Amino acid sequence: MEVQLMKQILMKKQAYHHSTVRYSFLKRLRRFRLMQKRKKSIFLILILVTTLSSQLHVERSLWVKERQSNFWQYIVNRTFNNKDWYENFRMRKETFMYLCKELDKEVRKKDTHLRCAITVELRVAITIWFLSTGTPYRVLAHLFGVSRSSICLIIRQVCTAIVKVLMRKYIKYPSGSALISVIDGFKAKCGFPNCGGAIDGSHIPISSPVEFHSDYYNRKGWYSMIIQAVADHKYRFLDIYIGWPGSVHDARVFVNSPIYNKGMDGNLFNGLT
């Protein structure tokens, strides 16, 4: 009896196993057929869309808005004389071209298959025009034939390049014979003996900061950041120190500046006897 019972149990298990395998196989088969139907439907839809699009004329939107740069190409480059350059760019054309040469590696962009990059000269011209006149981005965009977003990006990039390439090269406090030349220049021009530079502070207007905005509200009634500068007898910058909020007194800015520390350490007039 027990053997007969065991055989019946085994037969039932085998039958159940076969039915489970068969059910799983049929389920996978139905899923495969459903996927095939979906692929065929998608393929037919793609064929239909391609056929319709080839028959219909679609008016495409412009990828690049057409702009004119005649002012820069034909007026500035061809008709501006030295007076025009100095009035609008605050420098001669020779100085402008030298500036472009110095900044070329940092400012130049590569051409793409879609369009040519904005030239170094145009990038520098946009930045210098903005810095010298404060012209709004919208006006600059129409003037130079460049979008407002590109104007903003170009000005930031060129200013960063100027600080990186030119600041340490040209704005540095003199020593030795160069310092003697500055002292002699002040004595001859202004009658000041032993003067190594003229120092003063100025407020640079800024928008109201989100945080600590009251610190930047100066005594003149607007938001600013302070710049302290030292210039020689030819109005050339020898040292700059910037970053303090507009509400800070000039004396506090001065005692925290590197040139003050340099003077306190006795290194301001090195090389003089």
TrEMBL record:
Segments forming domain DDE Tnp4: 199-262
Localization, UniProt: Nucleus
Domain DUF8040, chain residue ranges per copy: 81-164
Keywords assigned by UniProt, alphabetized: Hydrolase, Metal-binding, Nuclease, Nucleus
GO CC field: nucleus
Cofactor needs: a divalent metal cation
Signal peptide feature range: none
GO molecular function: hydrolase activity; metal ion binding; nuclease activity
InterPro entries registered for this protein in UniProt: DUF8040 (IPR058353), HARBI1-like (IPR045249), HARBI1_dom (IPR027806)
Family of this protein: Belongs to the HARBI1 family.
Protein name: Uncharacterized protein
Organism name: Amphimedon queenslandica (Sponge)
